[in-house]
Amino acid sequence: MTLVDMGIPAVRSELPSLHGRPETPLLVDRFGRIARDLRVSITEKCSLRCTYCMPEEGLPPIPREELLTADEIVRLVSLAVTELGVREVRFTGGEPLMRRELEQIVAGCHAAVPGTPLAMTTNGVGLEHRAAALVKAGLSRVNVSLDTVDQADFARLTRRDRLESVLNGIRAARDAGLTPVKVNAVLMRQNLAGAPDLLAWCLAEGCELRFIEEMPLDADHEWAREHMVTAADLLDVLGERFTLTPAGRVDPSAPAEKWLVDGGPATVGIIATVTRKFCDSCDRTRLTADGMLRSCLFSDQEFDVRTALRAGADDAEVAELWRGAMWQKWAGHGIDAAGFVPPERTMGAIGG
Ligand code: SAM
Ligand code: SF4
């Protein structure tokens, strides 16, 4: 298997250029954006095999020695908040619940940067047994991915029959106080007709549902612009059962456009990553499970902070590497540009 088959980019840089960068501790890029939102992938392992994300056999395992340790993650999160202006941290993967040290990582970060919101994006499998402990450790928000409430569709889309566990996980998160639970659904032909049922379920359970346009980050490389389901397709289908009124974006850097459902106050969000891209207001910075800094999901460049840490870099050196990595950030993802090439790492290997 080649590096590319494994979803590992060939381009890895250690020393980003800081040419032209203004004097600021913050994670500013060449287009004036400032990254405040850190996504930390903590594992490549997953309990599901969503067709738009993972290959059927899962991602090749990251060798133990290449995975950032819990202490390294806590150090980097702490540095990002205290030195670089990060204001929110989200743990993702792979599936973060697959990492046994998740509670330890959350507790370590909470102790290091108390007051900083710590969130998690999860598929919800097994969450019912851990939601209370995660809240105790300091987790403040959760997004659960759920594309359909139809059991057969769920099993087809995720290649696993775990719908019940996910639904129980969402309820347990809500009961543990992680409210409002946000539910993320990727839009596809296979779940479009079931979108109104999913919205009705979320409204009944008090969850905030957001649909996300599918991006070309699937391991099977089957995504095609002409076949993808768009936000406009979804609005047509939801409009047959609900009255939707545009409510706009409350926070301009928030990716979801909101719609009031049947006059409100309940809402549904649509994250139109492809057809109404929001790169101009992107405030994300990313750390992969094997310790690479990325400025964008679609970047072809990453910066090796794991090697720097293990070679004894001090906080000032790590911070400078991170600032340089973000200074290289592109203006946009370019999905609609002629000659667009998807990144070599797939969604599950970067952390969504
Ligand atoms: N396993 C966790 C989960 O599913 O929530 C966290 C990792 S997953 C990669 C993070 C998010 O990325 C999920 O909401 C998932 O639905 C989304 N995602 C995965 N592949 C995607 C794709 N090709 N396009 C859009 N979103 C995708
Ligand atoms: Fe696993 Fe999440 Fe990817 Fe689905 S979207 S395969 S749950 S990492």
Automatic annotation (TrEMBL):
<dbReference type="Pfam" id="PF04055">
    <property type="entry name" value="Radical_SAM"/>
</dbReference>
<feature type="binding site">
    <location>
        <position position="50"/>
    </location>
    <ligand>
        <name>[4Fe-4S] cluster 1</name>
    </ligand>
</feature>
<feature type="binding site">
    <location>
        <position position="145"/>
    </location>
    <ligand>
        <name>S-adenosyl-L-methionine</name>
    </ligand>
</feature>
<feature type="binding site">
    <location>
        <position position="121"/>
    </location>
    <ligand>
        <name>GTP</name>
    </ligand>
</feature>
<comment type="subunit">
    <text>Monomer and homodimer.</text>
</comment>
<feature type="binding site">
    <location>
        <begin position="284"/>
        <end position="286"/>
    </location>
    <ligand>
        <name>GTP</name>
    </ligand>
</feature>
<dbReference type="Pfam" id="PF06463">
    <property type="entry name" value="Mob_synth_C"/>
</dbReference>
<dbReference type="InterPro" id="IPR013483">
    <property type="entry name" value="MoaA"/>
</dbReference>
<feature type="binding site">
    <location>
        <position position="282"/>
    </location>
    <ligand>
        <name>[4Fe-4S] cluster 2</name>
    </ligand>
</feature>
<dbReference type="GO" id="GO:0046872">
    <property type="term" value="F:metal ion binding"/>
</dbReference>
<dbReference type="InterPro" id="IPR058240">
    <property type="entry name" value="rSAM_sf"/>
</dbReference>
<feature type="binding site">
    <location>
        <position position="46"/>
    </location>
    <ligand>
        <name>[4Fe-4S] cluster 1</name>
    </ligand>
</feature>
<dbReference type="InterPro" id="IPR010505">
    <property type="entry name" value="MoaA_twitch"/>
</dbReference>
<feature type="binding site">
    <location>
        <position position="94"/>
    </location>
    <ligand>
        <name>S-adenosyl-L-methionine</name>
    </ligand>
</feature>
<feature type="binding site">
    <location>
        <position position="39"/>
    </location>
    <ligand>
        <name>GTP</name>
    </ligand>
</feature>
<feature type="domain" description="Radical SAM core">
    <location>
        <begin position="30"/>
        <end position="255"/>
    </location>
</feature>
<dbReference type="GO" id="GO:0061798">
    <property type="term" value="F:GTP 3',8'-cyclase activity"/>
</dbReference>
<keyword id="KW-0004">4Fe-4S</keyword>
<comment type="function">
    <text>Catalyzes the cyclization of GTP to (8S)-3',8-cyclo-7,8-dihydroguanosine 5'-triphosphate.</text>
</comment>
<keyword id="KW-0501">Molybdenum cofactor biosynthesis</keyword>
<keyword id="KW-0547">Nucleotide-binding</keyword>
<comment type="pathway">
    <text>Cofactor biosynthesis; molybdopterin biosynthesis.</text>
</comment>
<dbReference type="InterPro" id="IPR050105">
    <property type="entry name" value="MoCo_biosynth_MoaA/MoaC"/>
</dbReference>
<keyword id="KW-0408">Iron</keyword>
<dbReference type="GO" id="GO:0051539">
    <property type="term" value="F:4 iron, 4 sulfur cluster binding"/>
</dbReference>
<dbReference type="GO" id="GO:0006777">
    <property type="term" value="P:Mo-molybdopterin cofactor biosynthetic process"/>
</dbReference>
<feature type="binding site">
    <location>
        <position position="52"/>
    </location>
    <ligand>
        <name>S-adenosyl-L-methionine</name>
    </ligand>
</feature>
<dbReference type="InterPro" id="IPR006638">
    <property type="entry name" value="Elp3/MiaA/NifB-like_rSAM"/>
</dbReference>
<dbReference type="GO" id="GO:1904047">
    <property type="term" value="F:S-adenosyl-L-methionine binding"/>
</dbReference>
<keyword id="KW-0342">GTP-binding</keyword>
<feature type="binding site">
    <location>
        <position position="53"/>
    </location>
    <ligand>
        <name>[4Fe-4S] cluster 1</name>
    </ligand>
</feature>
<keyword id="KW-0456">Lyase</keyword>
<keyword id="KW-0411">Iron-sulfur</keyword>
<dbReference type="InterPro" id="IPR040064">
    <property type="entry name" value="MoaA-like"/>
</dbReference>
<dbReference type="GO" id="GO:0061799">
    <property type="term" value="F:cyclic pyranopterin monophosphate synthase activity"/>
</dbReference>
<comment type="similarity">
    <text>Belongs to the radical SAM superfamily. MoaA family.</text>
</comment>
<feature type="binding site">
    <location>
        <position position="296"/>
    </location>
    <ligand>
        <name>[4Fe-4S] cluster 2</name>
    </ligand>
</feature>
<keyword id="KW-0479">Metal-binding</keyword>
<feature type="binding site">
    <location>
        <position position="279"/>
    </location>
    <ligand>
        <name>[4Fe-4S] cluster 2</name>
    </ligand>
</feature>
<dbReference type="InterPro" id="IPR013785">
    <property type="entry name" value="Aldolase_TIM"/>
</dbReference>
<feature type="binding site">
    <location>
        <position position="90"/>
    </location>
    <ligand>
        <name>GTP</name>
    </ligand>
</feature>
<dbReference type="GO" id="GO:0005525">
    <property type="term" value="F:GTP binding"/>
</dbReference>
